[in-house]
Amino acid sequence: MFQLNNFFDNKNMVCIDQAGCFKVLEHQRDLSVSPDAAETQYFAAQMNVKRRQVLCELNNSGVKLQAGAMQWILGNVEMSSGVTGKNFLGKMVGSAVTGETMSKPEYHGQGYVMLEPTYKHIVLVDVSQWGSIVLQDGLFLACDKSLQEQVISRKNLSSAVMGGEGLFNLCLSGQGIAVLESPVPRTELIQFNLQNDVVKIDGNMAIAWSASLDFTVEKSSKSLLGSAVSGEGLVNVYRGTGSILMAPTAK
């Protein structure tokens, strides 16, 4: 039996989004700043530069987290490394090629798991609506334990070398919610939904896309001269049926 005081009734901590067992809590102001930094922090809050945390409410369920993301645990919750003798080699290789941590600790039971604060924006994605979703490096923060993860590679080297993306990416599939750390807020993310169509993007602004899409790097024009004259050169091309999340204002 436990009590949690000055938390759900804390007016400075507001729930701005939730899905499944995940709640996104936003600190409206940073109340622990020094006098010298107070002015900077005040204007930062006015421009939506705020600390955000994810709360996982477990009800005999489980979640997987990015290593080092946990801040505190309350209740009858157990942690396992998520690495076994059977999958150790595969996770080690996957970690080396994607830049993700090898171990994604799993927490399961009855209670709460709170994640560390971040100034990044938190996006909750229902993976079942995507079929399988491919993530840009560094985007993964947490997900339901039921989701399957795998490392997928580009179909051709050009899409990685010339497209500004990695050769390998983390892919999630199954039924459940994924928690992503986005460089921009959800209100600025553009979602393309394609039905046997194509999207061409100048730069690596796509942060997530359906695994069903073919990703290539192509000339912006049919001719080299046309590409040179337009000033666009090469573009990232996503072709087929699926969805894309693009951060158009990310730097």
If you had to describe this structure to a student in words, what would you say it looks like?
The protein is mainly beta and 251 residues long. It has one domain: 4-Layer Sandwich (Double-stranded beta-helix). Helix content is 12%, strand content 47%. It has helices at 38-46, 88-98, 158-161, 224-230, and strands at residues 13-19, 22-27, 52-65, 70-80, 106-115, 121-126, 132-135, 140-144, 148-153, 168-173, 177-182, 190-201, 206-210, 214-219, 234-246. The strands form 2 sheets. Strands 1, 2, 3, 4, 5, 6, 8 and 11 form an 8-stranded antiparallel beta sheet that branches. Strands 7, 9, 10, 12, 13, 14 and 15 form a 7-stranded antiparallel beta sheet that branches.
Summed up, the helix count is 4
Span between termini: 47 Å
- Radius of gyration, taken over Cα atoms and rounded to an integer in Å: 20 Å
Name of the level-1 CATH class: Alpha Beta
CATH architecture: 4-Layer Sandwich
CATH homologous superfamily annotation: Mitochondrial biogenesis AIM24
Q: In the CATH scheme, what's the topology name?
A: Double-stranded beta-helix
Task: Quickly count the domains.
Answer: 1
Which spans of ≥5 residues are poorly predicted at pLDDT below 50? 93-98, 224-231
What is the number of E strands? 15
Query: What series of H and E elements makes up the topology?
Result: EEHEEHEEEEEHEEEEEHE
Largest sheet: 8 strands, antiparallel
